[in-house]
Amino acid sequence: MQPIFTTTITKFKANDSFECDDILVREIKLDININGIRVGSMMATPTDLEPLGIGYLLSENILSSFSDVSSVKFNESELTLDVKAEINEDSLKNHTAEAVIISGCGRSVTANVDPKNLKSKIIENGIKFQRAEISKQMSEFYTQCDLYEKTGCVHTAKLKIDDKFYIGEDIAQHNTIDKAIGKAVMDGANLNKGLLMVSGRLSSEMVVKAVTNGIPVLVSRTAPTSLGVLIARKFNLTLCGFARGENLNVYSASERIYA
Q1: Which of 62, 201, 218, 251 could disulfide-link 57, Cβ–Cβ 3.0 to 4.6 Å?
Q2: How far apart are CA 61 and CA 234, in angstroms?
Q3: Which of 131, 100, 154 lies closest to 248 in space, CA to CA?
Q4: Cβ-based neighbours of 170, under 8 Å, separated by 6 or more
Q5: For residues 181 and 38, what is the distance between their CA atoms, to the nearest angstrom?
Q6: Paired sense of beta strands 37-44 and 257-258, if any
């Protein structure tokens, strides 16, 4: 399934009007099934759907590791992603009982929004990133982002691990993180060395995805929410906002950033 399609529109430009072709991003409703049980429905862009599902299941702690997955397959006719794997049954039950519709796009849900009940590990990773390197990466953020260049209608996440980038593009910002994480784990990359950069706000569900997967640093050009900061501080995630030019606000675990 192509992630874009072309349609004819009427364009007004100054005092002129004319018909022309315009490229739009495609939007679908995707159901994610694990061992035959539907665990989520989300509006998504039909790219990297297998990594999206794997990243989502890891972020919800339904999966512990990609090595537990025996198969993952997108059914284009049914618009479903079917995963077979060994799972954390308690996390699946909690997801079903405690699921909350998140603040992003679509109907995606999470059970990981309450910092008092979030079951995750403190990030004790001592890795450090130079502020100038973060500024450089953020200034080049939209390079390699094909869908954004074509449509201007998607969010982006870029996960840098060593010298390799894992990029997720989607109409829903939370999906971009899951896509980037899914790509990385399916490639065997070590998330504990990751610098995760996103295009939008740092709300609680974005922060939780980094915390749950042990990613030490999360950066955006925009602001965090109060709950996002509380979760980051509780689990020692380095949370950075307003990364623009040479400026950077660090809301938690600033010791991982050096001049």
Answers
A1: 62
A2: 18
A3: 131
A4: 44, 45, 47, 52, 154, 155, 176, 179
A5: 21
A6: unpaired
Q: Which residue has the tokens 């990364």?
A: 243
Q: Cα separation of 127 and 105, whole Å?
A: 32
Cβ contacts of 219 within 8 Å, gap of 6 or more: 134, 138, 195, 196, 197, 198, 240, 241, 243, 248
56-82: pLDDT as tens digits: 999 999 999 999 999 999 999 999 999
Of 105, 145, 153, 240, which residue is the catalytic one? 105
Active site residue 105: yes
User: Coil, helix or strand for 221?
Assistant: coil
Burial 222-248 (b: 16+ CB within 10 A, else e): eebbebbbbbbebbbbbbbbbbeeeeb
Say how far apart CA 69 and CA 63 lie, in whole Å. 8
Report the distance separating Cα 193 and Cα 257, nearest Å: 14
What are the chain's domains?
Answer: 28-108 (3.10.20.10), 131-252 (3.40.140.10)
pTM here is 0.90
Q: Is 106 left (phi over 0), alpha (psi -120 to 50) or beta?
A: left
Task: Take residue 257 and report the two structure tokens written for it.
Answer: 């950033």
